Amino acid sequence: MATPEPTARVEESIAGLREGIRGASHLLVCLDFDGTLAPIVEEPGAAAMADGNRAAVEALAADPAVTTAVVTGRALTDIRQRLSLPITYAGNHGLELYREGELAVHPIARKRASLVGRVSETLEAALGPIPNYRIENKRLTGTVHVRSVPEPARERVYATVEDVVDRLAGGRLETSRGKRIVEFSPSVSWGKGEAVRLLERSAPEGTAVVYLGDDVTDESAFRELEPEDVGVYVGSGDSAASCRVESPAAVTELLAWLAGTGTSLLDEPTSVR
Ligand SMILES: O=P(O)(O)OC[C@H]1O[C@H](O[C@H]2O[C@H](CO)[C@@H](O)[C@H](O)[C@H]2O)[C@H](O)[C@@H](O)[C@@H]1O
Questions:
Q1: Catalytic residue among 32, 78, 214, 215
Q2: Ligand 1 centroid – CA 44 distance (Å)
Q3: How many other C-beta atoms can be found within 10 angstroms of the C-beta atom of residue 147?
Q4: Interface confidence (ipTM) of the complex
Q5: Ligand 1 in reach of 219 Cβ (< 6 A)
Q6: N or C: which end of the chain has fewer CB within 10 A?
Q7: Residue nearest to atom 21 of ligand 1 (CA)
Q8: 220 CB near ligand 1 (under 6 Å)
Q9: pLDDT along the chain (273 residues), means of 10
Q10: Considering the domain 109-186 in this protein, what is its CATH number?
């Protein structure tokens, strides 16, 4: 029987991971959530990690030679409840970071939280007649979902969000589009890439970074990686990542390998986390 395409991609990515792990003594494994650990679903509140991914992330989290982080656009409180594992979390695209019991919030993002709230409220009124849109106020950023909005009305949602943000925030917030979403966030030069760089700086010497992600905001993290690190893009679009797999199902195969064979290839693992 012919080998299915996703498995071939997984094999290529495993080869990339082997290369990255060779000579490393520690791994910093950074994982995006929606579209990577959890398949994309219609209702954001229903997103959940596949069982196989949970088992692999638990194994990575228990390995002293690995620092495991989930780097997501979701709010920190949301993602921590969803995973409930003792790992590092970067929420709101890196604007809030929780590790080893300590929380750090980007100071400008903290100041602009009330503005995010005001924009969210104004949007409720402005988008009122459009069916099935959903606003997620994540305190430091906001997301407007159009996945369930009829196709012809989606552009109107995007344009309304961009207009309201322009009018109310006057450059203090900016908008960006993702998978069937438009998000508004403080206009600061800090995102997933900067968060990963920060985590890497406090990792032990000899650390290789592995980053898995599927969306626009993950690209800043892929671009941050060094040649010895490994970026795995989930999907079929353009990406700066060095490897790719086709789907969250393939991520499960890849993570199972990483948590088993992959970590056993580390050279004299350190116990610093
Ligand atoms: O950085 P991520 O972990 O990928 O988070 C990005 C956004 O993910 C969520 O929205 C996406 O997933 C939803 C559930 O599958 C889907 O309905 C939506 O269309 C996707 O864009 C989340 O709700 C957002 O807050 C995150 O920013």
A1: 32
A2: 6
A3: 16
A4: 0.99
A5: no
A6: N
A7: 179
A8: no
A9: 58 94 95 97 96 96 98 98 97 98 98 98 96 98 98 98 97 97 98 98 96 96 96 96 94 97 82 44
A10: 3.30.70.1020
Superfamily of domain covering 8-106+190-264: HAD superfamily/HAD-like (3.40.50.1000)
**DSSP β-bridge partners for residue 26:** 207
Q: Quick check: CB of 103 below 6 Å from ligand 1? A: no
Q: Any idea what DSSP says for residue 92?
A: G
The neighbour count for residue 224, using CB atoms within 10 Å, is 20
Q: Measured between alpha carbons, how far is residue 228 from residues 29, 249, 257 in Å?
A: 14, 26, 19
| Residue 143: both structure tokens together | 């997301």
Q: Which residues contact 189 (CB under 8 A, 6 or more apart)?
A: none
Nearest CA to ligand 1 atom 20: 179
Would residue 63 show up in a list of annotated catalytic residues for this protein?
no
Domain map (residue ranges) of the chain: 8-106+190-264, 109-186
172 touches ligand 1 (CB under 6 Å): no
